[in-house]
Amino acid sequence: MSHVNQIRIEMRDLAESIRPVTDKANRGERLSVAESRKLADASQKMSSLGVEFQRARLDSAAAADAASRTPGDGRSSFVDDSPEARAFTEYLRNGTVSPEMRAAGEAAGSAGGYLVPPGWWQRLQVALKAYGGVASHFQQLPTDTGQPMQWATVNPTAVLGSLLAENTQVSESDYAFGQGTLSAYMYNSGVQLVSIQLAQDSAFDIDAFILARCAEALGRAEAAAVISGTGSGQPLGIITALAATSGQTSGGVYQLGTGTKVNVAGAASTTGANQVTELIAGTLAPSDWLGVLASVDKAYRALPGTSWFMNDVTLQNTRLLTNGFGDPYYPELQDDTDPKLYGYPVVVDNNLPNLTASTASGVIFGHLESAMVLRKVKGAGLLKLDQRYADFLQVGYIGYERIDSRSNDLRAATVVKAAAS
Hints:
Elements: H1 3-17, H2 19-26, H3 33-59, H4 61-64, E1 69-70, E2 77-78, H5 83-94, H6 99-104, E3 114-115, H7 118-128, E4 139-143, E5 149-154, E6 177-182, E7 185-195, H8 196-200, H9 206-228, H10 238-243, E8 252-255, E9 261-262, E10 276-277, H11 278-281, H12 286-294, H13 298-301, E11 307-310, H14 312-319, E12 340-341, E13 344-348, E14 360-366, H15 368-371, E15 372-377, E16 381-385, E17 394-407, E18 413-417
Parallel strand pairs: 4-15, 8-18, 11-13
Antiparallel strand pairs: 1-2, 3-16, 5-6, 7-17, 9-10, 11-14, 12-13, 14-18, 15-17, 16-17
């Protein structure tokens, strides 16, 4: 049995073991101290299993990829059995530059390298999603080239229809358009080293190995950029974009008040029922969760895909919130396979920062497909270094792609700005 399946079974068994307790909490019945502790311990275990499951699934990318491959003579080949795909595999394995590779052309940039075939690029994009919970919710804009392109934005909330009297001219309504430029910034995977023996071994799935390593390195870089990028010489991150807004009637920044206290399972009581401030607890008080939700206009909240975005630490801290009787405040959030908060899905992205005093951070809520756009230039590139590591009998591979992100309609999302404790 694979490690992935073992973890899946362990998660299922853990969920079954606490089902009587969660059912009791969902019915609104009071939990005993022992039951509350059991639920909190199970929640922590489920969270760690979730992280382990994700890591195991990504590490076994080659095995999971087998369903999309065809059997051969000892070599596993991509379903894309085009001459370009076969030529690319030979380039990875032996450094052979075939006519098909030359026809594909060198990728942009002084480092050279060759464009990956379409099937390999599509698989890379799928793999990248595993590392970018926030990025995958942006509006996706693939382009064939990396030339700068203008992107128009508009805020029509001030434009309202009006009552019209008979035989009266209709007044004009002016829409104020904004404009941003989508560039194409180059990101690379760093050098991924493989021994010459493995690279040349027909039994070694070189395609899957390089795909998995490049996807992890590029995915983590992309995920960080679209969250906290400055927008100057690099992509604009969503937190940076939202933090720069002001005076919006929807979205932007939700400013927390000072000193709101919450009940946390296992925390030492210092002030009776209210135990610690929300910043110390690393989460929000229920009233502030609702405040963040309400800060995004209902028109966006009703769109499919509207979600909460936070890291594992914030999610775990929120699971530990209790009511005045020690029961979990959010039973719906305890399910690690499908956590929800006030009916909206919770997306975990560990590139999001923890809640920090006086800083826009921690939690994002909204419809990110409306709020942000992520541009990717089709045709990532790969460079094979045959000579640089020859004295170690190794071959180096560098994967790279070009991306940019810009704001679109920032009324559709909100970021939290925590007050000092």
